[in-house]
Amino acid sequence: RTDPSFDLIHGQVPSFSHRQTGNDDPGETLFSVWQVHLLTPSCDAPVVPMLSSEEKVAVSSAYHAVTEMSDDVERLFNQMPDISTYTDYLDMIECPMYLNLIQERLSNDYYSSMSSVIADFDLICDNALKYNEEESDIYELARQMRDKFVSLVT
């Protein structure tokens, strides 16, 4: 709710947070709990850690190097696999991750540390290794992507 005791992280309001229906106050703004910090009168707004400028450059450079490895990287890993085609994907993969989501998170200063970026990138690769057969080209490409990304950001 819009309330002076709430502070949005980075002042950003996700587009899904606005609601106007039925008996709701048309000026009411709803926020997800992970988007706000409760402030007490005795404290200042919390400092939210973010990647440094150097880390952002390193991640961006590594991200582009990985996407340029092969045309298959973007084709296979930019979006979540189509679950109407791969109907068992969500049965096997608990937490889908894909390159465009990492890029979106980078653009929105979502990441607080280099390890959190690496964890999301590892998740893409782990998911590909889990879902695909060890002998497949996708499996091998995921291994190569991980090796390249980690070598460039660490």
UniProtKB/TrEMBL annotation:
InterPro entries: Bromo_WD_repeat (IPR052060), Bromodomain (IPR001487), Bromodomain-like_sf (IPR036427)
Any single biological process term in GO: regulation of transcription by RNA polymerase II
GO cellular component terms given for this protein: nucleus
Keywords: Bromodomain
Transmembrane segments: none
Coiled-coil regions, chain positions: none
CDD domains referenced in this protein's UniProt entry, alphabetically: Bromodomain
Pfam families: Bromodomain (PF00439)
Residue intervals of the Bromo domain: 69-139
Protein name: Bromo domain-containing protein
